[in-house]
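User: Predict the complex.
Assistant: Input components as received:
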Amino acid sequence: MAKCGPECEETLREIERFLDHELDDVIRVKVERHLSGCNECTDKATFRVHLKALIQVKCAEHEVPEGLRDRLRTLLATVDTGFDRG
Ligand SMILES: [Zn+2]
């Protein structure tokens, strides 16, 4: 941790845009070079990649959770039965 210097700060500041491929080539190469030699920044970059992927997956899930679906089905069945009995 003591090794973290201005280069790490700069890298972490650009990491978001680096992952979104929005950096200029010059800065991108600089970030890549730093990442290849700095485990700490690589860890943080990897974490962000996972986080991004997780958020994308979560946002893509529009399905109702299984537990809730079962409860709704049970509820509907109960209502139907009630109507049948008059
Ligand atoms: Zn670093």
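The helical segments are 6-19, 25-37, 39-60, 66-85.
Let me know if you want any component modeled separately.
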